[in-house]
Design a protein that fits this description.
This protein is an alpha/beta fold and 237 residues long. It contains nine helices and seven strands. Strands 1-2-4-3-5-6-7 form a seven-stranded mixed β-sheet. It is globular, with a radius of gyration of 20 Å.
Length: 237
């Protein structure tokens, strides 16, 4: 029993040492000229960032439908560990409640393709020590964010060198009456808009620079068939 205080002291010291080296989390307001407004964005910097002028690769994480910029850090706080482990900057921008990361043809206030593919990276590269090359810039997301990540990387391979999707909706057509998609792409009579903005069809327009992509979806997920379809289209392409 006499040794217990010493053990507690050692454990406490180790805990302080461990917590003393941790990624920092900050929130920035990033202005969009295309939408004439500022939106909040979570930025996770590795612990080593504050000690030197090394430039770091960046991973952009997009939230899902009905979410916001804070979703990832609140629901998956462990992403801070990844910033330290892999020595990178993690950026979680806001994609609005239901933007689907599109530039809407029916609502000029929704320009999230421009925002995420151009305005946010420009801000991040100018404000932080980043490696401002596509080979060191990746984008990933969940659900609506997964769809957004793949389509943005495919449309803008000069910006994003890699992309990942988790449970993304890869074919909008069967789901056009859901998730407020009509607010972004218009009424369902304009079926062509849903078709052209679906990743299963976007992928058939092969860019000159093909980004590395990875995607997954659970077998019980309602979007599983759209992901299987995308997998098939990639083999055909």
């Amino acid at each position: 029993m006499k040794k217990q205080p010493k053990i507690i002291f050692i454990l406490f010291a180790l805990l302080l040492q461990f917590t003393g080296k941790a990624a920092s989390v900050d929130t920035a307001n990033i202005y969009s000229r295309a939408m004439n407004k500022s939106s909040k964005c979570v930025i996770v910097l590795p612990d080593s960032y504050k000690n030197n002028l090394t430039r770091f690769p960046v991973v952009y994480l997009l939230h899902g439908y009905s979410g916001n910029y804070s979703d990832w850090i609140k629901k998956v706080p462990g992403i801070k560990n990844y910033a330290d482990e892999f020595q990178l900057i993690i950026v979680c921008p806001d994609g609005n409640y239901n933007s689907w990361y599109f530039d809407s043809p029916v609502d000029s206030s929704i320009r999230y393709e421009t925002y995420i593919s151009s305005e946010v990276p420009h801000y991040i590269d100018s404000a932080f020590h980043t490696i401002s090359e596509k080979s060191s810039r990746a984008i990933a997301g969940l659900s609506m964010g997964g769809q957004g990540a793949l389509s943005l990387a495919w449309k803008h391979p000069d910006i994003f060198g890699a992309a990942g999707s988790m449970s993304g909706l890869q074919d909008l057509v069967p789901w056009k009456n859901h998730y407020e998609l009509t607010k972004v792409l218009g009424d369902t009579l304009n079926n062509d808009r849903f078709y052209k903005n679906s990743m299963v069809n976007i992928v058939n327009k092969i860019p000159s620079q093909i980004p590395a992509i990875i995607f997954d979806c659970g077998v019980d997920d309602p979007f599983i068939e759209t992901n299987r379809q995308l997998h098939s289209e990639l083999f055909i392409a």
